[in-house]
Design brief:
The chain has helices at residues 3-36, 47-73, 128-140, 157-168, 188-191, 193-196, 305-311, 315-338, 391-404, 439-452; strands at 116-123, 176-183, 201-205, 208-212, 226-232, 238-242, 253-258, 263-268, 273-278, 287-290, 297-300, 364-367, 371-377, 382-385, 407-408, 429-433, 476-481, 488-491, 506-514, 524-526, 538-540, 547-551, 565-567, 575-584. The protein is an alpha+beta fold. The strands form six sheets. A nine-stranded antiparallel beta sheet has the order 12-13-14-22-19-24-17-16-15, covered by helices on one side. It has a four-stranded antiparallel beta sheet with strand order 7-6-9-10, with no helix packed on it. Strands 18-23-20-21 form a four-stranded antiparallel beta sheet, with no helix packed on it. Strand 9 and strand 10 (287-290) form a beta hairpin.
């Protein structure tokens, strides 16, 4: 029985005991009165006059009990009450601080990563309370930002600097100046240091050996897709639709629903158009957009700031709206500093997990006696791992999956989206194998922790009911692509979390494990991989037992848009692989 249940029982028992005592007192009183009195019944005072104290106490207890039960039915962290700390929080995130990577002081500590740089951002003064609540939520470990009125001010020195900026501001138009980190994508010269140092590459032609110098230049990529994020700044849930190729009705697709002041993302292409509709009428377009890579962060905002202030009666909804506006301000400055779309939420928080460095193509990392990670892409950060599984283990996973049965693969575009099937995008079938399926699946998780340099315990399941004390790894997904051209168009693995989640959980890394040789077709393709030779990006031919590790996040906490990847159509050969997704910092 939980704590709240114990409290309910305590209230009920208190009320029952007082009622019984009152009944016993009433019975005793009546008996004494009937025995000791010779007066007529007409001379007795009215019943309510005799028992009004007990009746008042009973009424008060009933009202108190009702109000308490109503409170328990609501979120336990209503803004009237202090937040409840999670009793199932994993020690790994016990000291998690969401605001650790921002500063409002004149200086910020130097980044400890090679490609992390500092950047300034500016937040309007009107959002001071929202910034204050970020610090208060960290200190109270209020994981869903459910408390709005905390009992004390934050003790973080950065908040003191924020207060000092507010005190010194000569005008409300002056914005708060903050500092954070951003990830700088390595240049081609860093990715190919030999070429940058003018090392000559040999080639052979009809006239015999001849030296030439390869030009250090990114070829024009034939894929121009990107991630787009749609933010609903209205008090109503809306449906997001893709208008489809050519705007033809039969090509239209439902992307998902976006709750008030939440967001939803999808992979798209330049020129694709989207629209939102009311949830009760999918035929009425409220607003339409035609996207480009420069306008990949889209806001649906039908009301003015003042109108929303009047419409929103719940303080928590208004606070959520304010957090989106702070995030919008940060996103502008991030775009200016990085030329990348900010797909996350403010405040930015670097991943807690270790990330293998990828400084140049061909760089290797030796992991113990068993594995070597070889850099096959720097942007996105991807590694090849030979002999991750033996051929026998690969076949055993295939056999186990066939025995369990496979279902049509689905699409899932975000934390607020529903899973759906779309054969034009993903035409494979899959099944899921939990870690404890057998000793082989247990061994795969142990190997995954080893190659990723993670604490093995983080991939263990500790508590069924709490994400705070749960494995950071999903079940192993085994996928089959039949030989008749099945494919998975380019997509992202990361998830867009709710703005109301302090941990901002998302898929941090993907471990692909090939379970059979595919001599032709079925390549894993990273179509936007930065390279010096291939307009199709990076393509990997499946080889049984080989694994590919790539990260879905950047070191600054943003999603890595370049992690776009897919599976080329099979060409007469069946393809089997397994996916293992690792989350940061907890599973969502």
């Amino acid at each position: 029985m939980g704590k709240s249940d114990d409290k309910d029982v305590a209230v009920a028992e208190t009320y029952s005991h007082s009622s019984l005592e009152e009944e016993e007192e009433e019975e005793d009183y009546d008996e004494e009165d009937s025995i000791g009195s010779n007066d007529d019944e007409e001379a007795q005072p009215p019943f309510w006059k005799q028992h009004w104290p007990a009746m008042f106490i009973a009424f008060l207890a009933a009202v108190t009990g009702h109000l308490y039960n109503q409170q328990q039915q609501q979120s336990s962290s209503s803004f009237l009450f202090a937040p409840n700390e999670s009793t199932n929080r994993h020690p790994y995130v016990e000291d998690f601080v969401r605001t650790a990577n921002i500063s409002f002081c004149p200086t910020i500590s130097s980044p400890n990563k090679r490609h992390l740089k500092t950047m300034d951002f500016y937040i309007p003064q009107e959002y001071f309370t929202t910034l204050q609540q970020f610090y208060q939520a960290d200190e109270a470990q209020d994981d869903m930002y459910e408390t709005l009125h905390y009992k004390k001010l934050p003790s973080d020195p950065n908040f003191a600097c924020l207060q000092e900026q507010q005190r010194k501001a000569s005008s409300s138009a002056i914005k708060f100046k903050g500092t954070s980190y951003y990830y700088k994508t390595p240049s081609l010269g860093e990715i190919y240091p030999d070429l940058a140092n003018n090392q000559e590459v040999g080639s052979t032609n009809a006239a015999g050996p001849k030296s030439r110098q390869r030009k250090l230049q990114q070829p024009p990529l034939d894929f121009t897709g990107f991630a787009a994020k749609f933010v609903n700044l209205s008090p109503n849930t809306v449906l997001l639709h893709w208008d489809g190729k050519g705007g033809v009705d039969e090509n239209k697709r439902l992307v998902g629903e976006i709750p008030p002041f939440e967001s939803l993302g999808t992979a798209t292409m330049p020129g694709h158009s989207f629209h939102v509709t009311p949830i009760y009428d999918a035929t009425t377009a409220l607003q339409r957009w035609v996207l480009t890579a420069d306008s990949a962060l889209v806001y649906y905002e039908p009301n003015t700031h003042e109108e929303l202030k009047a419409l929103l009666h719940d303080e928590r909804d208004y606070a959520k709206y304010q957090r989106q506006l702070v995030n919008q301000a940060y996103a502008r400055d991030y775009l200016i500093s990085t030329q990348r779309t900010w797909l996350g939420h403010f405040p930015p928080r670097a991943p807690l997990h270790f990330m293998h460095p990828a400084q140049y193509i061909g760089q290797e990392h030796r992991i113990g006696e068993d594995f070597t990670l070889k850099v096959i892409s720097v942007a996105p950060r991807a590694f090849a791992i030979d002999n991750f599984l033996s051929p026998e283990d690969c076949q055993a996973i295939v056999d186990l999956s066939q025995k369990q049965g496979l279902q049509l693969s689905t699409l899932h575009t975000g934390a607020t989206a529903k899973q759906m099937s779309d054969l034009s995008t993903r035409s494979s079938s899959n099944t899921w194998l939990p870690r404890d399926t057998n000793s082989l699946t247990e061994q795969i998780y142990k190997k995954a922790a080893q190659v990723m340099q993670l604490d093995p315990e983080l991939l263990q399941k500790y508590h069924e009911s709490s994400a705070h004390h749960h494995s950071i790894a999903e079940s192993l997904q085994v996928v089959r692509y039949k030989r008749n051209g099945e494919q998975y168009q380019s997509h992202h693995d990361f998830v867009y979390p709710s703005i109301n989640h302090r941990y901002q959980p998302s898929r941090f890394a993907t471990l692909l494990i090939y379970l059979n040789d595919v001599p032709e077709g079925g390549e894993t393709r990273f179509p936007r991989a930065v390279n010096n030779y291939n307009s199709r990006g990076l393509e990997i031919q499946p080889k049984a037992g080989q694994a590919v590790l790539f990260y879905n996040m950047l070191e600054d906490g943003n999603m890595d848009d370049l992690s776009h990847h897919g599976s080329n159509p099979t060409d007469g050969h069946e393809k089997w692989l397994a996916n293992l997704w690792i989350w940061n910092p907890i599973i969502g």
